Amino acid sequence: MTQQTTDERPGIAAAIVVHEGRVLMVRRRVSEGQLSWQFPAGEVEPGEEREAAAVRETQEETGLTVEAVKLLGERVHPKTGRLMSYTACQILGGTAHVADTEELAELAWVAHGDIPEYVPYGLFEPVQDYLDGALSA
Q1: What is the tens place of the pLDDT at every residue in 58-97?
Q2: b or e along 21-48 (b: 16 or more beta carbons within 10 Å of the residue's beta carbon)?
Q3: 8 A C-beta contact, residue 109 and residue 24
Q4: Angle at CA 111, nearest 5°, toward 84 and 57?
Q5: Where are the alpha helices (DSSP H) in 16-124?
Q6: Which residue segments constitute the domains of the chain, with CATH numbers given?
Q7: Contact at 8 Å (CB) between 57 and 84?
Q8: CA 48: distance to chain centroid?
Q9: What is this structure's pTM?
């Protein structure tokens, strides 16, 4: 890892999955502070690439098989202090459902205009920019 953080825990990889004009969001059973709805995400395992972790976590949490398209960016999350990476992914197969019932309460395909209802504090700018393009097409 090239970026030092105050947090020695592994980084978190998030998958930005867009399908039919909507983005996939999941609601955790246990909120992390203000975070309730978020993108499928989880810890990057030792030796694992960020993009691979985003793909794996999407499969584990939602049952979708996806592939990484592009790393959108990374930052230390302002709410959690964790190093976050965000990867745009496309669906290869499967139907989204709550596959990890211990971690997730529900999932939703969210339209562009409804994102602020799910994430009222706003999205990381590179993710918002990507969604502005992908969801308005």
Answers
A1: 999 999 999 999 999 999 988 788 999 999 999 999 999 9
A2: ebbbbbbbeeeeeebbbbbbbbebeeeb
A3: yes
A4: 35
A5: 50-62, 115-118
A6: 12-136 (3.90.79.10)
A7: no
A8: 17
A9: 0.90
